[in-house]
Design brief:
Oligomer: single chain
GO molecular function: DNA-binding transcription factor activity; transcription cis-regulatory region binding
Organism: Thermogemmata fonticola
Pfam family, one: TetR_C_6
Mean pLDDT: 77
Strand content: under 5%
Radius of gyration: 20 Å
Protein name: TetR/AcrR family transcriptional regulator
Number of helices: 11
Keywords: DNA-binding, Repressor, Transcription, Transcription regulation
Length: about 270
C-alpha cells in the first residue's frame, strides 16, 4: 500500500517462498509472513548463522540488563561483560549502543507478534476476521488480554526512548516510520479484505485512526495505570468504530459500556 491505496493481500499460500523467512512460521498466511519479515533488519536477513547467534547473544545480554536495571543503566561495558565478549567483538556486530537498543526493540515486537499469531484461539488477520482482530488487539493493548499491560513495560520504555531522540536521530525516525507504516498497511489491507465495499471510511484512514487510538491509550496507561476504566474504554472504542466496519462488526458486537461501581476500580 502506497499513496493512500490499499493493496489487497495475496491468496493465503503458506508454501510461497517469498512469504516465509527465518523465524516465521510457514503455516501463516503469506501476507502475514511478509509483514513479520519486515521486522527483520537487513543485517539480520543477510548474516551467517554464526553472526546471527552472536547478535542474539548480545541482544539477550542487553535485554536482561534492561529488564533488571532499566534502560538508563545499559552500557556497552555491562553488555560485553554479560555477553562474555570484548569491546571489539561487540562493535563488530553492532556499531553502537543505540543500534543494540533498536535491534532489541525490533526483536521484542517480532516475538510478540509471533506469539500472538501462534495462539490457536485468537483470530488471524487476512481470514475475514478484521473486526475480531481489532477487538482482541484493543483488549491486549488495554491490558485486558492474556498478559497485563505492565508486562510490556520494557518494550514501551524502549519505544518512548526512541521517540524522544527522533529530533536528532534521523536513523531512528526512518526506522520507526517504516515500522508504523508497515503496521498501518497491515491493518488497512486486513480491513479491505474483510469489510465489504463500499467502505464507509477509506481503510487507509481507518488504519491510521486505529493506530492513533491504540498508541494514545497505551501511552496514557503507561503514565497513569488508573487513567480510565479499561473495560468501559474497550466497549466505547468498539462502539465508535463499529459503524465503519459495517456488517463485519455484527459478528462480535460491542456491549453498551456501563459505569464501574466503586468496588471495580479503573483497571
Amino acid at each position: 500500500m502506497r499513496d493512500g491505496k490499499t493493496t489487497p493481500p495475496e491468496a493465503n499460500n503458506p508454501s510461497n517462498p517469498t512469504a516465509a523467512g527465518a523465524g516465521v512460521p510457514s503455516s501463516l498466511p503469506a501476507a502475514v509472513c511478509r509483514w513479520l519479515e519486515m521486522w527483520n533488519t537487513t543485517a539480520e536477513s543477510q548474516q551467517s548463522e554464526t553472526a546471527r547467534k552472536r547478535r542474539e547473544q548480545i541482544m539477550d545480554a542487553a535485554e536482561s540488563i534492561i529488564a533488571h536495571h532499566g534502560i538508563a543503566r545499559l552500557s556497552l561495558k555491562r553488555i560485553e561483560k554479560l555477553a562474555g565478549m570484548s569491546r571489539g567483538q561487540l562493535l563488530y556486530y553492532f556499531p553502537n549502543k543505540e543500534a543494540i537498543l533498536l535491534a532489541v526493540y525490533e526483536r521484542m515486537i517480532r516475538r510478540m507478534i509471533q506469539e500472538r499469531l501462534a495462539a490457536e484461539d485468537l483470530p488471524r488477520p487476512f481470514t475475514g476476521q478484521a473486526w475480531q482482530c481489532l477487538h482482541r488487539g484493543l483488549e491486549e493493548h488495554l491490558g485486558l488480554g492474556r498478559e497485563p499491560l505492565e508486562s510490556k513495560q520494557e518494550l514501551f520504555s524502549l519505544l518512548y526512548n526512541f521517540l524522544a531522540q527522533m529530533a536528532h536521530r534521523e536513523d531512528y525516525r526512518q526506522r520507526l516510520s517504516a515500522m508504523y507504516r508497515s503496521w498501518r498497511e497491515h491493518i488497512a489491507a486486513d480491513i479491505a479484505s474483510s469489510v465489504p465495499a463500499p467502505h464507509a471510511v477509506d481503510p487507509v484512514i481507518l488504519a491510521s485512526i486505529i493506530q492513533a487510538l491504540i498508541h494514545g491509550l497505551t501511552m496514557q496507561l503507561m503514565i497513569d495505570p488508573e487513567a480510565f476504566h479499561r473495560p468501559a474504554m474497550l466497549q466505547a472504542c468498539l462502539q465508535m468504530l463499529a459503524p465503519w466496519y459495517g456488517p463485519a462488526a455484527a459478528t462480535c458486537p460491542a456491549k453498551t459500556p456501563s459505569s464501574p461501581s466503586p468496588s471495580e476500580g479503573k483497571s
